[in-house]
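Researcher: Going back to the complex we discussed earlier. I've cleaned up the inputs and rechecked each line, so this should be the final set. Can you rerun the prediction on the complete assembly and write out the structure?
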Amino acid sequence: MATTAIRMRKDRTRRPTRIRESRSDQFFMIVTYVVLTLFLLAVLYPLIFIVSASVSDPLAVSSGQVWLWPVDLNFNGYEEILKHKPIVRGFANSLFYVVVGTLVNVTLTLLAAYPLSRRDLVGRNWFMMLFVFTMMFSGGLIPTYLVVHDLGLLNTRWALILPTAMAVWNVIITRTYYQVTIPHELLEAARIDGCDDIGFFWRIVIPLSKPIIAVNALFYAVGHWNQFFNALIYLTNEALFPLQLVLREILIQSNIDPTMADAAELARRRELRDLLKYCLIVVASIPPLLAYPFVQKHFVRGIMIGSLKG
Amino acid sequence: MVTVLRRSETGRVGAVNQRQAPRAGTWRRIRNCWQLYLMLLLPVVYLLIFHYWPMYGIQIAFRNYNVVDGISGSPWVGLTHFERFIGSYMFWPVIRNTIILHSYELLATFPLPIVLAMALNQVRLQWFKRSVQMITYAPHFISTVVIVGMLVVLLDPRTGLLNNFLALFGVEPLDLLGNPDYFRHIYVWSGAWQNLGFAAIIYLATLSSIDPQLHEAAVVDGASRIKRMWHIDLPGIMPVAVILLILNIGSILSIGFEKVLLMQNSLNLSASEVIDTYVYKVGLAAPLPQFSYAAAIGLFRSVVGLILLVLANQIARKFAKSSLW
Amino acid sequence: MAERHGASGAFPLNGMSRRQFVTRALGVGLSATSAGSLLAGCSGGGDPEGGGAVGADPLAKKGGPKSTQNADPIYPEGYVGPVASHKQPLVKEKVTLRIVVPQNTAVGDWKDNQFTKWYEETTGVHIEWHVVAGEAGSADAMTKVNAMIASGDLPDAFMNIDFSPAQQMLYGSQGLFVPLNDLIENYCVEIKRIFKAYPDVKELITANDGNIYTMPYVNDCFHCNCGIQRMWIYQPWLDELGLSMPTTLDEFEEVLTAFVNEDPNGNGKRDELPLMAHSLPAWPAPLSNFFMGSFLYNPGGPASNRPYPWLYLNNGKVDIVVNKPGWREGLRYQNRLFRKGLIAKECFTQDIEALQRIGNRKGDNILGVVRAWDWGSFLTIDASDPDARWHGYVCVPTLKGPDGTAISMWNYYGKAGNNAGFVVTKACKYPGLAVQWADGQYELEAQLRASYGDLNKGWRWAEEGEAGINGKQALYKALITWPPEDGLWWGQLGLSYRSNDFRLAEAVDPKAPTFEKPLYEESKKYYDARQDQSLQLPPVYLTEEQAAVTSEISVSIENHVLQHEAKFTMGQLDINDDDAWQTYVDTLDRMGLENYLRAYQEAFDAKYS
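Model: Rerun complete. Updated structure for the full complex:
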């Protein structure tokens, strides 16, 4: 079997014998830590602000009193969210689109990326052009809508999954990753062991490409999670709306036409928006943040090709 | 150093052998990789249905499209819409603004995720490394409306944190939002702030695939950290970086319009009107949506993008190891 | 073709509109004799899909459903507005209509909404709701609607979808939208009351071809007609400094100077801010909306209820105000204030939330004068607190200029100005039923239930002797602090008939004053100085060619004018430099101003001459 040619191991199980770091290396690492910490703080501050604002009195937020820690701590915003049926339903819908959509995405992406990474694929450049061309040119929104309509996908959950079943950008990145990390010798060794292309892909390439699979899954999942435009265009059944559509409806009400609504109604909408704004950001960010550690663990150095015999 | 070179050389040798293999009948070579074609089948079918089928709609740009007569029924007008765009008063301003803004964004934010990923890769403290990754990735999920709202608060000339901070050093308050020169800086650097952590993920994944033996050997050879980063890590992620760069150059005339639109005010319009906001205002937010006009501008942009992409790819083929084709 | 109209020369609008205005003020109906219905006579039967098929509907009852009077309400004297009646269901067996509506937080889920259920019970018509996400009228939502139309998968009707007049006319002429004239004539009851009380509404919704393609959304909102001009001043500061309300530009400058220099909030600090405003994209934006009235008639900058920024009628000719000498004088004045530090530079950059942060500031008030739609634009309004800060802000009337000019921008065409009514498509099998269903919403009880929730829960009929906002007998009384909870009402969507009398007939609770009354009082200041109606460009129906020309040029012009207002005001360009001004004016011409004005002229002539 091809596995004979490969040895997998974790970095942590066998570290190289530590050689004492030189002065310049130590200095370099100190600089690195300082810079990273500064960047961390720059990012952290607005995040803390958002979380604090979400549990503060909205009036305190809009009068500029909240700048780091919560003022008049309360959880009214979160309670309001739980009462708001469309938000809860949207949350569940979004989870569905993320899980199913990402599965489809990753499958198609790997299926496309591996053959395109093979130098011996006849017509590879033509395939690449076929793929890349779609990144530059599109038929436009209405023709695409007509296709989705003709396929009978409108107003179904599939409308958010099939039209975006694969992103060429991800295919290209994944292909490049394969070109860099899967040496041709490995394939030849596997061939000698009697492995065909599909077998090699299934038994060797996929286990070796966990980091890129994780990245793909993350990118696609985040894409589905943030996606609202396709839902806006393809859905008219409120029961299928994803979270982002509901959020936008609440967040982007500041531009409401004041001639359409009375002053009290305007005030109420603004109040609701102020109350929910930061809570919604927190709620909408939690799932992707929770998902990250699962992705991250695949980035540990060492799940990889140790050496090649030969 | 020898160790470092070995790997890429073996890769090369393989490739050369491949090309020099006797041209034993194209058909046989095609038959040999039938399984690869099988794998490509589904993705290609997807592209054909959802990308190539709708492309008949490109002809909208050459017609006076209206939804009732449909795509094939609307009258042909030739290049009218293109002439209108090129002849319009806003043509040069929006092209200039778009190219400047995008190039600036590219130059400023392209190298940063690479630097971040390589720096993180050096960090040995696992908890620190993980926290930095996780936290810097979080801003990606804050919606644009809120980001712009927070920018306005931060940069407010009277009450903003930035100006209060500058005031400590006796610096006069800056009206950053009202100055068209600053619009680009604010746009680009707030974007970098928001997306840096997310963009670094791809490089982190690539770095994790580099053979640790290379590092081990280099350490034995006495190479410093910077040297190892330069000679091992950087070449390792270069192929991915080059591909990303090529793709980015191809989209030089597109900028997501939502953030720009939200950041526009009467004082910065001379720098902030870009193709996408212009198409939005003229084509889609108009009393009668100008679908054909919007399509023509879109097509113009695609053609320019394709030309640039092909050029960038040719250059990459010549000078870098990786290219699209 | 348009030239033919232009050549006729006669310009009836002035006289006609005055008549309409008298009609409305007196509250008596004149039979509709507007130019629109005359035109309808000329082009009648021009409908390609056959007016006959459209005019008849086997399901719907001619003359409307059988109805009996509702004896509960007590109408104030001379009341003009929706009238209550009990109507029988429109159909005997359940019929389903497919209707496209916008997504809305207040409505919640359209099919589970409480008013939806009541209305289905009352009419017997079941609705299959198709919800378009995105802000109503936004480009996203309209793209979706256009894609729907392109796919040929038409609903029976669109409700509250913002079809511009140009779209109505185009889709109407293509047979996609059904002309409603005959349907209204045969099947509707309530809308005829509207046409009687507001002949100008009928005129406004009649396209150039004489057809009506949309049922109107009527909101005779007095204060909306000057909202983009309103300037607010903090009365307690005037009192504190012993100043009276400014009436001229010079007095206004004195007041601003005093506010900044004389510590009106009495905290010993010079923390009072000069004049504040917020910038685009939240409208109403430019400061010139307020100041130009002291120099010339200014129709106002971009705003959703004023589709034609800065355009006006100069003796029947469409013209623009931003290149006139008066405009330059106005900018000179703004520049003078700015140079003296009396206009805050944030006016041109900050968004509405930044402004609210200043207005809501804890501790001493620092906001003296602010250009905004209503109090809610610059602070959080709390109706229950009688000492709340917002009570202190009152409107500055249009100021007299150097030669005594003071012209407010009054919107004479706002009451049906929104295009978000009810449109029936050619796919509808029962067009008569559809319009009847829509028509029933104009009935008084339906109006009240749609905006207050259930009878005797959200509101009740007023009792004898209860007084309304205008001091007359009230018609209804809210039982909740309006607005109702989400899902109990239609969030001011659906078809509205809120006449001025109706709006003012709400019983006032002296303990919990609403915003409507003070807003009404403040707006009167502008009404008194309003421009002659003949100066305002009324809504026009652009053709495809005209729309193509204007959409392109309007973006350039809007950018140019807004940018230069800011630059001239802030002194980045010198308003006293003749070359700078000339360049500004010439650039407008180079952008295609002439074509722009011509397109509007043609559209205007096609409808009004």
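Model: Worth noting: The first helix of chain C runs from residue 2 to 8.
Researcher: Good, that matches what I expected from the previous run.
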